[in-house]
């Protein structure tokens, strides 16, 4: 059971200096079209949305976190959630590289 202490942190409209300090423009990019996605984060992810609108529903919670274009979002390691994407997403992302343990069995159905 995942503890309910896993929280998605959203920073609205971070400053340009913070974005350049994080070197976001060098991060890989990822996008998805509108729809519902089941996601599990095996490492902490920081992402900056260039486009999109998302409601993230953490597993086992009735509450959701909403974020979109211009938001800097930190998703904790171990969180499972459903992304309800209303507007197609285009984002820069980075996984925390504090050497996560190797995935011994990747069973995705």
UniProtKB/TrEMBL annotation:
Residues 20-93 form the (S)-ureidoglycine aminohydrolase cupin domain. It holds the Pfam family Cupin_3. Gene3D superfamilies: Jelly Rolls. It comes from the Eukaryota. SUPFAM superfamilies: RmlC-like cupins (SSF51182). InterPro entries: RmlC-like_jellyroll, RmlC_Cupin_sf, UGlyAH_Cupin_dom. PANTHER family: OS04G0445200 PROTEIN, RMLC-LIKE CUPINS SUPERFAMILY PROTEIN. This is Two-component response regulator ARR22-like. It comes from Hibiscus syriacus.
């Amino acid at each position: 059971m995942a503890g309910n202490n896993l929280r998605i942190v959203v920073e609205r409209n971070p400053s340009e200096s913070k974005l350049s300090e994080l070197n976001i423009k060098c991060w890989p990019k990822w996008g998805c079209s509108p729809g519902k996605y089941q996601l599990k984060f095996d490492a902490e992810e920081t992402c900056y949305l260039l486009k999109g609108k998302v409601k993230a529903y953490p597993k086992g919670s009735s509450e959701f976190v909403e974020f979109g274009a211009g938001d800097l979002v930190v998703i904790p390691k171990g969180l499972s959630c459903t992304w309800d994407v209303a507007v197609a997403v285009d984002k820069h992302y980075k996984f925390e590289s504090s050497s996560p343990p190797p995935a011994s069995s990747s069973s995705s159905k």
